Amino acid sequence: MFIATKEILIQNETFTLTNQRAVFWKTENALILSDLHIGKTAHFRKNGIAIANHIMKSDLERLSALIELFQPKKLIVVGDLIHAGDNSDVDEFCTWRNQYPDLKFHLVEGNHDRISKTLEQKLCLDFKASLLEIGGFSFIHDFDKTKSDFQITGHIHPGIILNSLVKSIRLPCFAISGNQLLLPAFSEFTGLDTKNLPKKSKFFVFTDSEIYEI
Q1: What is the DSSP letter of 55?
Q2: Opening angle at CA 118, ends 157 and 41, nearest 5
């Protein structure tokens, strides 16, 4: 796995985009991502759809590689950490989480995060709320049109269609506008929304080896 990076400035703060679907915020020493959907593969298997467990293992391997590279003090998940409540995949995630006892774990709740007090303790969360505000930035799962500050969001699973003479390619992306940084879904087991993207945005598309602006 190769980690490509690209530094950008937002509100005079340096953020490092990666081709592994996450962002590093240097000032806060925070790794930021959204839409892990832990438990989605187990949920599908429970309902009779054969989905291999290696999909989640791959997501966690990428996350471990990012933690090793950036050595963050905080992990901020901007919604949809969990897909469908507690299940065997959540157990595996908690085992992975226990490798990083000093890493502060912040969850901004998304529409899938139906987390009981028991599950909250199991996940070893240091923070859980629908909104997190740090240094002039608001972390919220879905963009709130009533707020005027800069929002870092998820939920949409943004993607871009690139057309060529041979075929069309759909790729995940970051979308940045005047008041929003929209994160891609961290889990690779998600669809891409290529239609409901923020208007007047710059898009940073990524592949296995690079990040580029379009």
Answers
A1: H
A2: 35
Q: Which two tokens stand for residue 25?
A: 């915020």
- Sort 113 into a burial class: Cβ within 10 Å, 0-12 / 13-18 / 19+: buried
pLDDT (tens digit, 9 = 90+) per residue, 174-214? 999 999 999 999 998 788 999 999 989 999 999 999 999 98
Map tokens 């939920």 to a residue: 155
Report the distance separating Cα 86 and Cα 193, nearest Å: 27
Closest CA to 121 of 94, 147, 148, 140: 94
Do residues 11 and 137 lie in contact, with contact meaning Cβ atoms separated by under 8 Å? yes
User: Where in 94-167 does DSSP place strands (E)?
Assistant: 104-108, 127-129, 132-134, 137-139, 150-153, 159-163
Question: What is the pLDDT, as a whole number, of residue 85?
Answer: 62
Secondary structure of residue 43 in the 3-state scheme? helix
**What does pTM read for this prediction?**
0.92
